Amino acid sequence: MEEVIIIPLGTVSPYPTLTNNCPGFLVKYKDTKILLDCGSGITKYLNFPNDLNNLNVIITHLHKDHYSDISSIQYAAYVYHNLNLLPQKVKVLLPFLPNYLDIVNTKESFCEYEEIINDKTYEIDDLKITFHDNSSHSIPSFMVKIASGKEKMVYTSDIGSINLKDAIEFCRNTDLLICESSLLKKDNPACNYHLTAYEAALIAREAQVKKLVLTHFWPEERKENYEKEAKTVFENTIVAEEGQKLLLRR
Ligand SMILES: [Zn+2]
Ligand SMILES: [Zn+2]
């Protein structure tokens, strides 16, 4: 069976640094590539024009830290298509919600767009992609589940803490859970639009996932502090690092 490889391209928010980018995860399966979010700086890790071929971009929600590099992808696709190096349009799945037209109406671009519908399952190659918004972030934001046969991964993108039960159901029995942990317990507890590392670990434990990967960190905070907090609840936890290779396996 073909392996699903997941490479973190961006792990921090709200701004990129010299070594860390805003959110992005590249999923590779056979010849297909799925880019989960394209935050600031992630194109540094892409191989142009090759990675534009068979590329599907998923924008989970319309916060700039998750989509600002779509303009680089659109323009690169336009340029390489004009050079006859890119025959097929880049596919972009995104919520058709206020300000999406700013993305879709970009002129010098070689992309096609499809709307993300809540709880709908899409097929890319023979992967099944399901989206779910549990209405816990400050704007609609879709968790993404990718299933390859019996193997499943979930990328939560940005979710808050007000609907954890629903998040647990969506993540149940996944092999790999890439979960946001924007906060530590010591951070402002009044912000419930994001999760603490502790809450991410609670989801992993209650949903009985195999492995938890934390992401969406403050650029100023040491990543090991998130890992330490999560491991008090769920031992098989790592922090996402740009360029590392993760495998979806039972
Ligand atoms: Zn957000
Ligand atoms: Zn974010």
State the share of residues found in helices, binned by percent.
10-25%
Strand residue content: 25-35%
The CATH architecture classification is 4-Layer Sandwich
How many helices? 6
Spans where pLDDT lies below 50 across 5 or more residues: none
- Main sheet properties: 7 strands, mixed
Order of helices and strands: EEEEHHEHEEEEEHEHEHEE
**Can you tell me the overall shape?**
globular
Q: Write down the CATH topology.
A: Metallo-beta-lactamase, Chain A
Mean pLDDT: 96
Bound molecules: zinc ion
Q: Determine the N-to-C terminus distance.
A: 12 Å
Physical arrangement of strands within the biggest beta sheet = 6-5-4-3-2-1-14
Number of strands: 14
Q: What is the gyration radius calculated from CA atoms? A: 17 Å
Number of domains: 1
Structural class: alpha/beta
Q: Could you give me the name of the CATH homologous superfamily? A: Ribonuclease Z/Hydroxyacylglutathione hydrolase-like
**Which CATH class applies here?**
Alpha Beta
